[in-house]
Amino acid sequence: MSTHHDNLPATAEPAEDRFTNPGFPPHTPRRSDVDERAARRASVQVVTLFTISALASIAFLVAYYAIDPELKGSIIGIGEVNLFHVVLGLTMGLSLLGIGLGAVHWAKTLMPDEESVEERHTMASAQEDRDAVGRQLSHGWRSTHLNRRSALLGSAGGALGLFALPLVVPVLAGLGPRPRGELYTTNWEAGKRLMIDPSGAPIRAADVTQGSVFHVMPDGFVGAAAHELDPQDMMTSKAKDQVILVKLDPAKIKSQKQRDWGYDGIVAYSKVCTHVGCPVALYEQQTHHLLCPCHQSTFDMTDDCKVIFGPAKRPLPQLPITVDDEGYIVAVDGFREPIGPSFWERKRPGILMEDEG
């Protein structure tokens, strides 16, 4: 069964015959295109916006270092806020806003405002076409007013350049303070007892049996005594004072320095991995290897904790120990080198031992 519609044409007309190309609307010049004074005003406005952006970027940096990060304040309708964050947000927002408004205003008032159609052409252009492109680029450069108004380019470059600082400086500063004395010293010192972590009990050398392993902290920084510390001091101590104590067969110890700094086969080493600072806490009794669980750096405890596998580049620092008059294990001194990962100033004269590279 078929249906016939008499009102439909027998053949459809081609699309190009049914629609007419409307072309471009008539070009209406802007005031800045026909009035030099209007162009100058637009140029000044763009420069002003870029200058505001640059000043806001500078204000961000000043506020970052001048305002106390813990400073609080009250804003109507919002309540108590952290003024440090508010000022940083406002200055960075104003810096970005100045760049955005300046770029938009520049494009709408001074950039070329003509539409054109460029037909497709072969990849190998004729010399005449290349010359035409050169003339067009030259005309574009002049039409942006950059050749006559150097302040536009200078202010735009300054605004964009300074805006990068609020993005880069907090990242670099947020990496932490520059290494100072705290990386060279710990809370270990002569006569400080080695206390079991977390109980805080002292360790008698006579009670340490072959293959025993203890995770220890300095006296006063573990157990009940640690609760009296400032929380920040306690966390700092936990990060850099942690030590692993192991009793080895003295006959298996290869390093003379390791024997001298130990006591009857009992040796103590920093638990802070020399790769990125993870706690090295996995001891394998049969092989006498210490393993870092983060990146599998492996240290040989019978050979002064030298690296035998993994990304770590330095042995774990040894803590020299002895026993006091009551038989408890104590430190002879602090670490003779900085613990943990390497840093630029690590080889400061007078810090490392003579045989340290």
From TrEMBL:
Bilayer-spanning residue ranges: 46-67, 87-107, 151-173
UniProt-annotated location(s): Cell membrane
Principal location class: membrane
Signal peptide location: none
PROSITE patterns assigned: RIESKE (PS51296)
Region (Disordered): 1-36
UniProt keyword annotations, A-Z: 2Fe-2S, Cell membrane, Disulfide bond, Electron transport, Iron, Iron-sulfur, Membrane, Metal-binding, Oxidoreductase, Respiratory chain, Transmembrane, Transmembrane helix, Transport
Domain of life: Bacteria
Gene Ontology CC terms: plasma membrane
GO-annotated molecular function: 2 iron, 2 sulfur cluster binding; metal ion binding; monooxygenase activity; oxidoreductase activity, acting on paired donors, with incorporation or reduction of molecular oxygen
Pfam family, one: Rieske
Keyword Electron transport: yes
Domain Rieske, residue spans: 221-330
Membrane topology: Multi-pass membrane protein
Family, as annotated: Belongs to the Rieske iron-sulfur protein family.
Main function: Iron-sulfur subunit of the cytochrome bc1 complex, an essential component of the respiratory electron transport chain required for ATP synthesis. The bc1 complex catalyzes the oxidation of menaquinol and the reduction of cytochrome c in the respiratory chain. The bc1 complex operates through a Q-cycle mechanism that couples electron transfer to generation of the proton gradient that drives ATP synthesis.
Protein name stated in the entry: Cytochrome bc1 complex Rieske iron-sulfur subunit
Organism: Ornithinimicrobium tianjinense
Lineage, broadest ranks: Bacteria, Bacillati, Actinomycetota, Actinomycetes, Micrococcales
Gene behind this protein: qcrA
